Amino acid sequence: MNKQQNTFPEGFLWGGALAANQCEGAYLEGGKGLSTVDVIPSGKDRFPVMSGEMVVNTCDENHQYPSHEAIDFYHRYEEDIALFAEMGFKTLRISISWTRIFPKGDETMPNEAGLAFYDRVFDACIKYKIEPLVTIAHFDVPMHLVQTIGGWRSREMVDHYVKLSEVLFNRYKDKVKYWLTFNEINMILHLPFIGGGIRFESGENVEQIKYQAAHHQLVASAAATAAAKRINPAFQIGCMLAAGNTYANTCAPEDVFEAMCKDRENYFFIDVQSRGAYPQYALNQLKQKGIKLTMLEGDEEMLKVHTVDFISFSYYASRLTSADPAVMTQTEGNVFSSLKNPYLKASEWGWQIDPLGLRITMNALYDRYQKPLFIVENGLGAVDTPDENGFVSDDYRIAYLSEHMKAMRDAILVDGVPTLGYTSWGCIDIVSASTGEMKKRYGYIYVDKDNTGAGSLKRTPKKSFNWYKEVISSNGGIL
């Protein structure tokens, strides 16, 4: 390709991504209520709480809670958005904190202070010609709804979620065009508390509860899509998948079949949101597991009619699986366990680095759904060590992102996969969702804060800051 052919399509949305619970802080300011993420500690109890195995209802003095201050985006959003604008961002993915809008989740009227905060954030974006990309629910459920109705195990959550969505659509209909209904919707099967505010009691049918909750979220997503199109037909609504194709460990047919089954576990959510119905393989699997979903009259029609406009996804790593139970060498992969792929290097947290896997995933998703894609998370978590001036020479991050962007470019320009944009994860250092750490950094901007919560919160651009600025200004012509 020559340089002209290297550039991305005109209007491609370059930017970065954040989540309210990992950046905002101010966890009880402005009338905000307690959310599930606010009671998830860092340390050894983090995973048991996220998975729903350990029941907590409030915060205590024995744990540290990273979301309480995070990086204080709530008070520093203007400074941060100005830095994003300096890089040339065309879009910024953020999420809404549900309990800023409805502190308990079941109020009749929304909290004006919370709505006004996001008005200010969106106005700052618009000032710099940055298109907001908004996730309605990003690992966020009001704790009041967890304690009173059991989170997304309850059908009542559909109405609460749709009410939230309608308030947002009406309030920001002239400021926000792109919306995502749920972040990594498939995560409810893997981390039920963080994905849906679900905890389990001894003896419960865990799989039945998780899949019923998933059905509630799928119906809620479709109902929110219907509301969006009614309020502003120009809205573009997307689903969001934790993606990454699964490779077979060998060419043995049993391994190939196992890899197909692993991919289907995640595809089934998007099959429903994009195609409008439960696929037959999913119905068969549910029957084989003895799971009988409770569907109300009108659910199937709602799912069928109100499908999404585009497919967004996170991509950090591919996965590897085998049908042979004796093959046990595992690696880490953002909650998803995977065999260790001998052909790939890994990050400091054991995540397999596979740029070509992004191109493979993009082709697989487009072949399956024939709808535009939007890469809304991709990045490298690493330990950054500032020099005496606070500057980080993160060449390792530049190398990671550059190779993934080249793979994305090839999927778009060579393979013909229509793609709306790319928002790299954690465009400024934020609290890690998986570990609760600050030392696991993704950003182009260093935030002076450590795992204990100490630090000035000063923002300092890294080497990757200027590199990404050049990528955007050249529309991907310089990678």
Quick structural overview:
This is 6-phospho-beta-glucosidase. The protein is an alpha/beta fold and 479 residues long.
Strand order of the largest sheet: 1-2-3-4-5-7-13-14
Spans with pLDDT under 50 lasting ≥5 residues?
Answer: none
Which percent band covers the strand fraction? 5-15%
Percentage of helical residues?
A: 25-40%
**Biggest sheet descriptor:** 8 strands, parallel, barrel
Which architecture would the CATH scheme give at its second level? Alpha-Beta Barrel
Task: Return the structural class.
Answer: alpha/beta
EC number: 3.2.1.86
Protein name: 6-phospho-beta-glucosidase
InterPro entries: GH (IPR017853), GH_1_N_CS (IPR033132), Glyco_hydro_1 (IPR001360), Glyco_hydro_1_AS (IPR018120)
Enzyme class: hydrolase
Q: What are the defining features of this structure?
A:
479 residues; alpha/beta; TIM Barrel; 8-stranded parallel beta barrel; two-stranded parallel sheet; 39% helix; 14% strand; globular
Question: Can you lay out the helices and strands and say which pair or pack?
Answer:
Layout: H1 3-6, E1 13-17, H2 20-23, H3 46-50, H4 73-87, E2 91-95, H5 98-101, H6 112-127, E3 131-137, H7 143-149, H8 156-171, E4 178-182, H9 192-196, H10 206-231, E5 236-243, E6 246-248, H11 253-275, H12 280-288, H13 299-305, E7 310-315, E8 319-321, E9 330-331, E10 338-339, E11 345-346, E12 352-353, H14 355-369, E13 373-377, H15 395-413, E14 419-425, E15 445-447, E16 459-461, H16 463-473
Parallel strand pairs: 1-2, 1-14, 2-3, 3-4, 4-5, 5-7, 6-8, 7-13, 13-14
Antiparallel strand pairs: 9-10, 11-12, 15-16
Helix pairs in contact: 4-6, 8-10, 10-13, 14-15
